[in-house]
Amino acid sequence: STLLKSISKIEGDFWIRLFYCYPNTFTTEALEIIAADKRFCRYLDMPFQHINNDVLKAMNRKINRRQIENKMQEIKSYLPDAAWRTTFIVGFPTETEENFEEMLEFVSEGHFQHVGVFSYSHEDNIRSAKWGDPVPNALKNERRNRLMEAQQKVSSHRNKNYIGKKMKVLLDGISEESDLLLQGRSEFQGPDVDGLVYINEGTARPGTFHNVEITEAHAYDLIGRIV
Q: Residue 207 in contact with residue 170, Cβ under 8 Å?
C-alpha cells in the first residue's frame, strides 16, 4: 500500500497495472487507493492456482475457496468493472477428477476475463515432490484443454459486450499480423499475456492514448476504429 500511495502521487497521464497480487495479502487499503485513482487500470491479476480446498491446502496456498470468494466479492465492491486475470494449475499430484471438475465449474461461471492454465511440472526438492507425479501427462493435457475451452467461451461472451462501446487504448504501433492494422491494448488487457485491440481505421503514433470504438470481438482480441 505504501508503494501504491507513492506512485499515485506522481503527476501525469499514464497507466498503472498490477500483476501477481496474492489474494491472502491484498488489503482493503490497497483497494481504496486503486479505486480512487483512475490511472490504476481496472485490471487485476490474482493467481488462485486452484479452487478445491484439499488441493489448495496441499499446495500450501494458505487460503481456501470461501476466502477466495470473499476476497473476490470485496474487490468487486470497489472495482465492479475490473477485468480479472488468474492462473490455475492442472494435474497437481493430489488432484482428483472431482477436484478438477470443481475448478472447471468455477471457471465456467464466468468470473474471469483472462485465464492462464499450466500443467503441473514435477521437480525434486520442492514440497510437492513427496507425492511424485501420479497424474499422466495425457490426462494433464486433457484437463488443461478442457479448462482453456471453458474459459474461451467465457472470454468470447464477455468480449462481445464491448461491441459498440468506446474504450481508451494505448497504441503499440503497427500490428504484427498485418501492416494494414495498428495494434494496442485497453486497460483490460495486460501486455504479452492477454489479447489485443486491432485498429483498422485511423492513424496514431505509438505510445499515445486514443479512444477506440469496438466494432468486432473475438475470443481474445478486439477490433475497432479510432474516434
A: yes
Residues 68 and 65: their CA atoms lie apart, in Å, by: 5
For residues 171 and 198, is the Cβ–Cβ distance under 8 A?
Answer: no
Report domain extents, the chain.
1-161, 165-226
- 165-226 placed in CATH 2.40.50.140: yes
- 3-class SS of residue 86: strand
Q: Are strands 16-18 and 40-45 parallel, antiparallel or unpaired?
A: parallel
Length of the chain as a residue count: 227
Q: Residue 16 corresponds to which cell in the numbers above?
A: 498503472
Q: Are 87 and 103 a contacting pair, CB within 8 Å?
A: no
What is the tens place of the pLDDT at every residue in 159-201? 999 999 999 999 999 998 888 899 999 999 999 999 999 999 8
Is residue 41 within 8 A of residue 16, CB to CB? The reply is: yes
Query: Among the CATH numbers 3.40.30.10, 3.80.30.20, 3.30.70.100, 2.60.40.2470, which is that of 1-161?
Result: 3.80.30.20
What is the bridge-based pairing of β-strands 40-45 and 83-90? parallel
Which helix (DSSP H) or strand (DSSP E) does residue 30 occupy? Answer: helix 28-36
Residue 202 burial (C-beta neighbours within 10 Å; 0-12, 13-18, 19+): middle
Indicate the pTM of the whole model.
Answer: 0.90
Query: Residue 182: left (phi > 0), alpha (psi -120 to 50), or beta?
Result: beta
Nearest to 76 by CA among 44, 98, 52: 44
